[in-house]
Design brief:
74% helix, two-stranded antiparallel sheet, transport, globular, 485 residues, Growth Hormone, Chain: A, MFS_dom, transmembrane transporter activity, MFS transporter, mainly alpha
Length: 485
């Protein structure tokens, strides 16, 4: 890619020091930054996933407030457009802001992305009509899309070679807590009190409290503010500093990483072989696409994400609306979705402990099977059978979330440091359009398809994504600069 991108090897003494620094960092076998930084990034991700999932339950009340004549059975007709434009915002944010992170640094852009997301959430809390709601969701999406790309990039560059998926999954645990908070808070604030098991008896929505959805987005803005203040403490990625020939600062951070690692282990492994490095102020999208190796990787990863996001967002952002289209009452539908978030938390913890035991792409077929099983259990349980639907929902959430952190790590691993954030933006950022297109096309058909076919359709897209992923490159437990020079 160096010849295609116009990058040149770092020469002379700088080249030798840079290669030696990367080799020193690569031999560290454990997480060697403060775990506080995991928490700092995690708080930001908790907010971003709160924002992704807060629309799941709350949108029915939002639609009733902002759209004349919107009722639970027809709310699915109005979900597609804000979801599509929210995900289109992901594309805009990822494509515009991610290259800036390749050029100006990971940490500073991580601050910018969270500021944009928080402002979008605050705007959402204050809107008075459907058009402005859509605009606010689009602005929020701009921040979220870039944040997803930059967090995955940052983690891949500072985590040990044998733990990139593991520590991406650790962040994903915070994501699961954000989704849990978004859905359960929506159930409490935006559905009426309903006798269990058809809802929550302590839910507070009703004629005297119809603004619960506004409180949801206000909470999101507050979470964003906390994340912004904490992210000022993050160090810059040493790998990125080296591409900018800022060797002295990179060496300070790597030395601190070594010293922190030695507090937990008795000795560090020997320094491995040095790999020739390339300097560059950030490769352009055309630089990536002109290189045959990275073009092939981009096509495979983009198709995988585009197709899989039809499943992920169809369920993650739309399950409550989907269930109401299948004749579930809104409180019951929201409760089923809320129970599913326990599966999300469980699978995030599972990914942390076991995500490194298989190559990244092998998790997708397993995820597809579990997603189909969970969806069919819900479909065959029918309305009024909370126990069956709850079990199905938990399995469903386990299924469509199982592969996500491993494939985030995989996507970042497939690009060189000088273009890692940009490459991730191409595949994951643009890939998010699949989620919007899928729900926009499928949602109006749900009443005609029926429960079984609906969940088979959603699960089927993940099957297709799993097949596409098998064409990809193996990256597990390999050095980043070997996988993507």
């Amino acid at each position: 890619m160096a010849s295609e991108a116009g990058d040149t090897p770092i020469t002379g003494v700088s080249s030798s020091r840079a290669a030696a620094l990367i080799a020193r960092q690569d031999r560290i076998p454990i997480w060697s930054l403060s775990y506080l930084f995991i928490g700092i990034i995690g708080i930001g991700f908790l907010f971003t996933f709160f924002d992704i999932f807060d629309i799941n339950v709350s949108f029915i009340q939002t639609c009733e407030q902002l759209v004349a004549g919107c009722t639970p059975p027809t709310s699915s007709n109005y979900l597609g457009l804000p979801l599509l434009l929210n995900l289109s915002g992901y594309v805009v944010g990822a494509l515009i802001l991610s290259p800036l992170a390749d050029r100006f640094g990971r940490r500073d852009m991580l601050l910018v992305t969270l500021i944009i997301t928080g402002l979008g959430s605050l705007y959402n809390a204050l809107v008075t009509d459907y058009v402005n709601f859509i605009i606010a969701r689009t602005i929020t999406g701009i921040g979220v899309g870039a944040d997803l790309a930059l967090v995955a990039t940052y983690i891949s560059e500072v985590a040990p070679n044998n733990g990139r998926a593991k520590y991406t999954s650790l962040i994903f645990i915070m994501s699961s807590l954000g989704s849990f908070l978004g859905i359960w808070l929506g159930l409490i604030l935006t559905t009426p009190a309903t006798p269990f098991p058809f809802g929550l008896p302590f839910a507070v929505a009703g004629p005297s409290f119809e603004s619960g959805w506004r409180w949801m987005y206000g909470v999101g803005a507050l979470l964003a503010l906390v994340g912004i203040l904490l992210r000022f403490q993050l160090p810059e990625s040493p790998r990125w500093l080296i591409t900018q020939n800022r060797i002295d600062l990179a060496e300070e951070i790597v030395t601190e990483m070594e010293q922190r690692a030695l507090r937990r282990i008795s000795d560090l492994p020997p320094v491995g072989s040095e790999i020739a490095l390339h300097e560059g102020k950030g490769a352009s999208y055309m630089d990536i696409l002109r290189d045959p190796v990275y073009l092939r990787r981009t096509i495979i990863l983009f198709l995988m994400w585009f197709v899989s996001f039809i499943t992920v967002y169809g369920i993650g952002a739309g399950l409550t609306v989907v269930l109401t289209s299948l004749k579930y009452l809104p409180p019951e539908a929201g409760l089923i979705a809320a129970i599913g978030t326990f599966g999300f938390i469980a699978v995030a913890v599972f990914d942390y402990y076991y995500g490194e035991i298989l190559e990244r792409k092998y998790w997708l077929p397993i995820a597809a099977v579990l997603t189909i099983i969970g969806g069919l259990i819900i479909a065959l349980s029918g309305t009024g059978n909370l126990a069956g639907a709850a079990i199905g929902s938990i399995i469903l959430f386990i299924g469509f979330n199982l592969f996500v952190p491993m494939c985030w790590a995989w996507s970042a691993e497939n690009y060189p440091t000088r273009a890692r954030a940009s490459g991730f933006a191409l595949v994951d950022g643009i890939g998010h359009l699949g989620g919007g297109v899928g729900i926009l096309v499928i949602a109006p058909l749900i009443p005609k398809l029926g429960p079984v076919i609906t969940f088979l359709v959603f699960g089927g897209f993940l099957v297709v994504a799993a097949a596409i992923a098998q064409l990809g490159t193996a990256t597990r437990d390999r050095r980043l600069d070997e996988v993507s020079p």
